[in-house]
Design a protein that fits this description.
Length: 278
């Protein structure tokens, strides 16, 4: 039975390492058990059946109980106001990234996939058309959005557009300074030489920034939850919030009566956004 126990240990260890690499946190025991039981690549019990160590796989009849949903840890309105103040002294690239993340609710991959041509400067509109992702086998690569409805356009307050203009001017200076060393991907958020930024860079930067400023840290995806909560609290209807977030259905955002439709024009959160974040 020793090979079986070794297989079990290796399988669980691999899952734990994967979760820690992806979330930078210790995995929830219930979710860990679910992954170990369900993932075919760790089907060590089927291996035991094949090797005649067991006569049957008992886990095939297991129903994993639903655990309690942990409430997402997000910033309060007061904390976001504090964060904006702290970001005033941050490098322009990161001040722009997190300001835009708070005002847009864009997913991390959507933020990193943004290109300068996605910005309509005349109408203060930014469009999500792609994502930037990472795997160990592919490295950083460009992909389609999560769903078709994730391709969307949002209108922004003038203050956000002014910050983007300032950041673009800084990036253009760097491009000219580097000359042929600059690799032109047209991305907003890049490494020193113009290549797309690593997916984990914003996470680690914000974590270190919060520690240095003795400020509570919430992960980047929590900014998306804050955006949704702020709009709902300001009375923005569920269909508009759902469309702004790029959810495939309204029920993903909140439970709302049937019949709501999403407007085809760019979602304008300008007035509400200004009221919330000034």
């Amino acid at each position: 039975m020793q090979p079986l126990f070794s297989a079990i240990f290796i399988a669980i260890s691999n899952v734990v390492c994967q979760v820690e690499r992806r979330t930078h946190e210790q995995p929830d025991p219930l979710r860990l058990a679910e992954r170990v039981l369900r993932e075919e690549r760790y089907a060590f019990l089927w291996y035991a059946v094949k090797m005649e160590m067991l006569t049957d796989n008992p886990c095939k009849r297991v129903t994993v109980p639903k655990g309690e949903k942990k409430e997402k840890d997000i910033y309060t309105l007061e904390e976001v106001a504090q964060l904006f103040q702290l970001l005033e002294t941050a490098p322009l690239k990161y001040r722009t990234f997190f300001t835009l993340a708070i005002y847009s609710g864009f997913r991390r991959g959507e933020m990193l996939g943004l290109e300068w041509k996605d910005i309509d400067w005349e109408h203060n509109v930014i469009s999500v058309r792609r994502t930037s992702n990472y795997t160990a086998s592919k490295g950083i690569y460009t992909d389609t959005t999560k769903t078709k409805k994730s391709q969307r356009s949002l209108k922004f307050p003038q203050s956000v557009m002014d910050l983007l203009r300032e950041y673009k001017a800084e990036q253009d200076e760097e491009r000219i300074k580097l000359g042929t060393k600059w690799q032109d991907y047209d991305r907003l958020f890049v490494k020193w030489d113009g290549r797309p930024m690593n997916n984990n860079t914003p996470y680690f930067w914000l974590k270190e920034f919060c520690e240095e400023n003795n400020f509570r840290f919430c992960d980047i995806h929590s900014l998306r939850h804050f955006y949704a909560s702020a709009l709902i609290n300001e009375g923005v209807d569920a269909a508009t919030v759902s469309g702004a977030l790029g959810h495939s259905t309204i029920t993903t955002t909140v439970n709302t009566p049937k019949g709501h439709t999403q407007p085809p024009q760019p979602y304008s959160i300008d007035n509400k956004g200004s009221a919330i974040f000034i």
